[in-house]
Amino acid sequence: MTCIEARGLRKAFGTTIALDGVNLRVEEGRILGLIGPNGAGKTTALNAILGLTAYQGELNVLGRDPWSQRDQLMRDVCFIADVAVLPRWMRVSQALDYVAGVHPRFDRAKAESFLAKTTIGRTSKIRTLSKGMVTQLHLALVMAIDAKLLVLDEPTLGLDILFRKQFYDSLLNDYFDRSRTILVTTHQVEEIQNVLTDVMFINRGRIVFDSSMDQLESRYSEVLVHPEQLAAARALKPIYERQGLGRSILLFDQVDRQQLGAFGEAHTPSIADLFVAIMSNQSPGAAV
Amino acid sequence: MNTQSSAVPESFGRQEVMPAVMSATRPLYWSVRRELWEFRSIYIAPLVAAGVILFGFLISSFAGIWEKALSLDPSQPKVAEPYNFAALLIMGSTFLVSLFYCLEALHAERRDRSILFWKSLPVSDLTTVLSKATVPLVILPLLTFAVIAVTQWIMLLISIAVLSVSGQSVAALWSHLSLFQMWVVLLYHLVTIHALWYAPFYGWLLLASAWARRAPLLWAFLPPLAIGVFEKIAFRTSHFAAMLGHRFGGGPEGTEFTKAGMAMDPLMHLTPLHFLISPGLWIGLAITAAFLAAAVQLRRHRGPI
After folding, report:
1. Which regions of chain A are under pLDDT 70?
2. From CA A138, how far away is CA A87, in angstroms rounded?
3. Which of A52, A88, A98 sits opposite B119 (nearest CB)?
4. d(CA B285, CA B291)
5. A52, A72, A89 ranked by CB distance to B38: nearest
6. CB contact set of B133 (below 8 Å; sequence gap of 6+)
7. Which of A85, A99, A103 shows the shortest C-beta gap to B113?
8. What is the pTM of this model?
9. Chain B residue closest to A89 (CA)?
10. Which CATH code, of 3.30.1390.10, 3.40.50.300, 3.40.120.10, 3.40.640.10, is assigned to A2-204?
């Protein structure tokens, strides 16, 4: 089943075009990373999907139009929009009471058991919690909701590495099952590389790359090349070349790994490296 | 996830009905509760006012000021004065709270970005705005009534205690102070004037609070001022200012007792029918509805500041 489907999604703020005809399709049960530079339109795309912003074009999330049916959609969709959007004046117990009160799919016992693993006190005010604890609380609230789609916008921004790791671990181990879909944007790409099943790059309001991780692994390879073999390697038309440890690292698209084996051991590039390669080919004047 | 599949058919049918009922009232109920959690001045302000009044009344009772007034001439209606004064003071405090609450209600959530959290829950913008309008239109008038009633009751107990200690007759107090009658008038005044007649003010302030990126107070006061000044310069009239003054200064027919004063058998002046058929009331409510509808649309479009 299709979870999110967008066709020709456009959004402009004055003369700035945030989304320039985005087409995307996310199937149920995927974990999709939406990666892009600042100002690429990531948050605008998520806001459109969540019914927080009006748009032009067609958008369908779990069979609903998000802009006109946000409140109904939110029974099946959860989102964590960066850290610290939980109201600071609220007590932890009030947050639990409120979500239990308004959300028909919230399992309070589940949220309590997640919280029991943390040091968060029930009577604490959110303003007294650390950034990491607020995120833990938000995650506990969200994971206790039986939702079909979870949207995370920079969920771990400003957290230390322990919290970040824990965040994705609990998400994968305690929350994700094959029937749910997760859409995540982040700048810490390396940390979610192993979590994702799909990846999309967005730049200047357009989706410039869209692939499953399986496809990505079979299609792209990266090789560390000795200077004397560089000319031969370049003949295979790498899409990107960078320097590292006195050698050249060449990134190839759809080149047989056995062929590349002559230059060194070929491996799958990191999403970050692939992102840089594809973004630099996107720059004005460059051939795509 | 599969707990429903094992449920018997009837209970499954009930579960189908339940969400529909829940979607209508439960989010509203919880949204109102969260307003009371967030804006604690809603109940703290009248309680503090009541505390100050009771403390002052206690001191003055023991100092014998009111006692003297009583003993001088038991037939004069002055005994009710401190009670009316207490009611006035508490009403004033909650009215101020209403105004500032409305200015904050749709602004604070955008300022602290928590609107992103509220919007991530299945609560519509309409429900949210209605829950916020419920505070000045329903919660505060009823709360004001309760606080005033309890305060006056305690004042009465203090008076009785002081009178009995000083060996004076409590009967004079009873004959000139009928709390029950005062409470009926009070409740009528709060519902007709504070809730229904002032409703457009609250609606306007909520709209300003949803609209403003900064300084909702200025957005609330400058446009009406501009309209008034424009009218004065362009047409040399001041209908707009007069209209606002009339709206603020008192009710339509049927609530005149506010001017007549509460001391003279005020129940005679309660004419709810006149009030209910006065066009001013319904025009005001229609304007309130329009303001609130605009606030709903604004909340839908606006994100954090």
Report:
1. 83-84, 283-288
2. 11
3. A52
4. 10
5. A89
6. B202, B203, B206, B292
7. A85
8. 0.87
9. B38
10. 3.40.50.300
Q: Which of B135, B120, B116, B27 is nearest to A101 (CA)?
A: B27
pLDDT at A227: 81
Q: What does the alpha-carbon distance between residue A84 and residue A136 come to, in Å, rounded to a whole number?
A: 11
**Distances in whole angstroms, Cα of residue B294 to Cα of each of A47, A82, A124, A269, B126:** 22, 29, 36, 52, 10
Q: In one letter, which amino acid is A85?
A: V
Asked if the Cβ–Cβ distance from A71 to B109 is below 8 Å, we say no
Below-70 pLDDT ranges, chain B: 1-23, 64-78, 250-269
**Residue with tokens 């029991």, as numbered in its chain:** A116
- The confidence score (pLDDT) of residue B20 equals 53
Question: What pLDDT was estimated at residue B160?
Answer: 83
Taking only the tens place, the pLDDT of each residue in A86-102 is 999 999 999 999 999 99
Give backbone dihedrals phi and psi of A179, rounded to 5 degrees, phi first: -90, -15
Q: In this complex, do A84 and B113 lie within 8 Å of one another by their Cβ atoms?
A: yes
Q: Dump pLDDT digits (tens) for A26-61.
A: 999 999 999 988 888 888 999 999 999 999 999 999
How many interface pairs between A and B have CB atoms less than 8 angstroms apart?
84
Euclidean distance between CA atoms B283 and B295, whole angstroms? 18
Burial of A199 (0-12, 13-18, 19+ CB in 10 A): buried
Crossing angle (nearest 10°) for helices B81-105 and B216-235 = 100
Which two structure tokens, joined as six digits, stand for A10? Answer: 């456009």
Phi-psi region of A122 (alpha: psi -120 to 50; beta: other; left: phi over 0): alpha
Structure tokens at A190: 């390396």
**Chain B positions touching chain A (beta carbons under 8 Å):** 1, 19, 22-23, 26-27, 29-31, 33-34, 37-38, 109, 112-117, 119-125, 127, 300-301, 303-304
List CB contacts (< 8 A) between A158 and chain B: none
Residue A224 neighbours by CB distance under 10 Å: 15
**Facing A103 at nearest CB: one of B29, B119, B121:** B121
Report domain extents, chain B. 18-301
B287, two tokens: 């304007």
Compute φ and ψ for B61, nearest 5 degrees.
-60, -45
